[in-house]
């Protein structure tokens, strides 16, 4: 069974529920970045919470292997299609909450530490499959806008200092982790460093953040302005983590040097 037929059948069942206002295809299926390892990501936009037992009764029509009401990163259901290896991930979003999220981001220009604009990216790139009253399409059009200049500045001003400038910066935390030979904390802090680093990269280019997967590849394809040797520098950093020595600090310094050059050239620091 092809992806389109799977999505159609699932949507056809869920749209019967009164408190579902829209159903959209999300993730790589919506952006055209799908590969052999991609799941089918479906976002269901709700007016009220849909009880888990109602969701399970629908999913049982398609699957014998399922996880209902996972709440690790928000409410979701995951399952494997019957007689198939295809995994379907359904995430549920309250429409009011989603609207408030984009008001905070795009009208109040509120940045976060890493992934500031991911929800915006998800909304404007979602492929609408079902839209009961046309409200999601209107919502999508409302926020298909130019990147707010103040938001760009706020993302950089929030994420840049924590890379290396401040006493509490990731750089300083990484140095301490190396001195302690604390490889778990080291990996955690480098990951957080890269979260803020890429938040800055996409802000510089005035592009909504595409999420956590294939970031180097996406950045090289979509961003006109990138630090020199971004792929080489990051690869070198990640390969050096097993050493747990000052080579890691040297690699971060190279990354920061090239990022600073880009930011200075754009008059952003």
Automatic annotation (TrEMBL):
Under Gene3D superfamilies, the record lists:
Beta Polymerase, domain 2 (3.30.460.10)
- Provide the alphabetized UniProt keywords: Transferase
Aminoacyl-tRNA synthetase among keywords: no
In alphabetical order, the GO MF annotations are: transferase activity
Q: Name one Pfam family in it.
A: DUF4037
- Spell out where the chain crosses the membrane: none
Q: What's the name of the protein?
A: Nucleotidyltransferase domain protein
Q: Which residues form the DUF4037 domain?
A: 123-212
Which part of the chain is the Polymerase beta nucleotidyltransferase domain? 9-69
């Amino acid at each position: 069974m092809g992806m389109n037929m799977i999505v159609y059948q699932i949507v056809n069942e869920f749209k019967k529920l009164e408190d579902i206002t829209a159903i959209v295809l999300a993730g790589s299926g919506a952006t055209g970045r799908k590969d052999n390892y991609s799941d089918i990501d479906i976002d269901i936009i709700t007016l009220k919470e849909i009880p888990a037992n109602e969701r399970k009764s629908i999913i049982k029509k398609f699957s014998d292997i399922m996880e209902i009401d996972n709440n690790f990163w928000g409410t979701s259901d995951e399952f494997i299609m019957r007689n198939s290896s295809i995994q379907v991930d359904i995430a549920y979003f309250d429409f009011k909450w989603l609207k408030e999220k984009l008001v905070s981001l795009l009208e109040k220009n509120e940045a976060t530490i890493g992934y500031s604009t991911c929800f915006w990216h998800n909304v404007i790139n979602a492929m609408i499959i079902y839209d009961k009253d046309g409200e999601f399409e209107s919502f999508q059009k409302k926020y298909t806008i130019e990147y707010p200049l103040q938001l760009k500045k706020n993302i950089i001003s929030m994420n840049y200092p924590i890379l290396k400038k401040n006493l509490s910066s990731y750089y300083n935390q990484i140095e301490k982790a190396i001195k302690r030979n604390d490889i778990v904390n080291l990996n955690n802090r480098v990951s957080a460093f890269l979260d803020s680093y890429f938040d800055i990269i996409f802000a510089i280019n005035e592009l909504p953040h595409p999420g956590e997967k294939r970031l180097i590849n996406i950045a090289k394809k979509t961003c006109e302005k990138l630090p020199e040797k971004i792929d080489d520098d990051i690869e070198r950093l990640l390969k050096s983590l097993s050493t747990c020595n000052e080579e890691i600090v040297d690699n971060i310094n190279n990354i920061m040097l090239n990022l600073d050059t880009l930011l200075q050239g754009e008059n952003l620091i």
